[in-house]
Amino acid sequence: MKQFLAQARYWLTVSVTLILILFTSTDAVAQSSDSIIAIRQDSLIKIEMRKDSLLIEKTYKEVESELSADSSRVSMKRSQPLATPLKPRFIPDPQKATWLAVVFPGAGQIYNRKYWKLPIVYGGFIGCLYAYNWNGQMYSDYRQAYLDIMDTDPNTNSYEDFFRPGYDFEKNKDYLKEVFKKRKDRYRRWRDLSVFAFAAVYALSIIDAYVDAQLSSFDISDDINLSVNPQFIPSDTRGSNFYGLNCNITF
User: Fold this and answer.
1) Minimal CB count within 10 Å: which of 49, 101, 184, 216?
2) For residues 35 and 25, what is the distance between their CA atoms, to the nearest angstrom?
């Protein structure tokens, strides 16, 4: 019996010892695993922090480079000369334009900066002068021919230059007198009309210079429009209705 109790005590001691060893090893393994997990988490946190620091450093460098580029562009813009301001719109003086056109034909158009009108003005003057010279020369020739054919002096025969040699002047002398008189009067009238045309061109150049300068400051806004709408007119005493158009000008 004593031997049995001794063996039971022995085995109980061994079992308790094994149980204690087993629990101790399990705690150690758990602690070691927890420590390994904590180490891994710390390393991951450090890696993430490293990545964040690298990203922040990269972003800082990019922002710094952009700021330096902007500052260089700003400095270059500052170093460049400023653009010249727009010139104010030229508005001619009507009185000045008129007096210039009176003193010298075409000067009013030059003052108004309407250079394209100069060929028209000077072309009109040149045309009038050419017409005056041409009609004056023809009037002088026919006048002299008419005077020669009207007198009795045989040496004054300039009218013969208008016809071919061998023409019978004595036979048609009365007819030629009438022809030379009409043509003399016609060319004299055209010569005089050339003078009036020259004066008209001169006056038109003055009027054009004044009107052009006056309209240079005329306000033409975008609100100017014309609207046409149908209009109904109520019946009158006769009981008739009328329809029409209503025109409105807005400016």
Assistant:
1) 49
2) 15
